[in-house]
Amino acid sequence: MKEFFPNILCCKYLLNSIKRLGLVIFCLCFMFIYGTYFFRTSTSRQPKSDLDNYTFDYLIENDICENVPYLLILVHSASNHFEHRNVIRETMGNPGGKLPSIKVAFLLAITEDLQDKIWEENQKHADIIQGNFVDSYRNLTYKHAMGLSWASSNCNRTKYIMKMDDDIFVDIYQLVDYIKNKLGDLHLQKNIACYYQRSMPVVRDTVSKWYVSKTEYQSDTFDDYCSGWAYITTPKVAGLLYEAVKKLPFFWVDDVHLTGSAAQVAGVGRIRLNQLYALETDGLLDWTRSKAELRWDKVFAPTWGDLDLSRRAHKKARMCHNRLCKCCYRKPTTPRPTTSSTTVKGSAQLIVFPIH
Prior knowledge:
The protein is an alpha/beta fold. The protein is built from 9 helices and 12 strands. The protein has helices spanning about 5-45, 80-90, 115-125, 140-155, 170-190, 235-245, 255-265, 280-290, 305-325; strands spanning about 60, 70-75, 100-110, 130-135, 160-165, 170, 190-195, 225-235, 270, 295, 300, 325-330. The strands form 3 sheets. Strands 1-4-3-2-5-8-7-9 form an 8-stranded mixed sheet, sandwiched between helices. Helix 3 (about 115-125) links the parallel strand 3 (about 100-110) and strand 4 (about 130-135). Helix 4 packs across helix 7, helix 6 (about 235-245) crosses helix 7 and helix 8 (about 280-290) packs across helix 9. The termini are far apart. The relative contact order is 0.11. The model is unreliable at about 1-5, about 35-50 and about 335-355 (pLDDT under 50).
């Protein structure tokens, strides 16, 4: 009998140990399931903040479309580009002539050490929309989405929208003429008119500013998209793109994400205007220096921040608009030097490519 009680006690101790071990295993399993499923769901599938849901608070906002403009220009601008913005105000924001009403809205984000200067700038011009996120290259998707959201909500009676960067020259006179006579309502109610990029390779070089990892973007080619330099659309399309981007995982390359992936989700088409874009400044420089009173054969061109070039180009575009310049100035091709051959003498033939 005395030997029986220790055995019972041992059995009870063993059973209690098994229960405790089972409880520990159950807790570990529960924590594993929670960590791999519920936590992943809460961090990846659901928004972590209002910003992740593309819901923006504005540090600065203005009623820019109170007097409904024909064209609203949304300008992506870095916080410290004060002079870039002034040049755009002087030129595209004040084109003169008999153009329909044009308004400019500068899209900014937060740069704390410049905030006082930005407040002063806005008090003077009242044309800034500033979002509640840090101004950085990797936040351009937020800035792009903010602009589309704001425009579709606050400027829905505006006829057309142009989104552009602040280092791009746009011949505003030729652009308005092109919209009126060649694009029109029917084309832009469900489309974006732009420099159309097809099958562009994803940059995998880790030292590049534009490096994109496989985790960020699986495919080695981007969805077809519109260059973010400058494109034209309508408030309706802006709203469609904004609603579509909220359904997609975040991606920081803004033009690919908004005018490529989100456009596909929204069923928004792209109109190819590549023939109107210059990809370098050479042609723009030549045209501004030329004494020929001819319109340029391009509408859009990069200035790479050369503000003097922007001013000169706009001045010439305005002159051509006022004087009804004929089309079109083309960058001259330099002929080869004459040959010293004894059998053939003369200049090489110049080949002129057709203008679309």
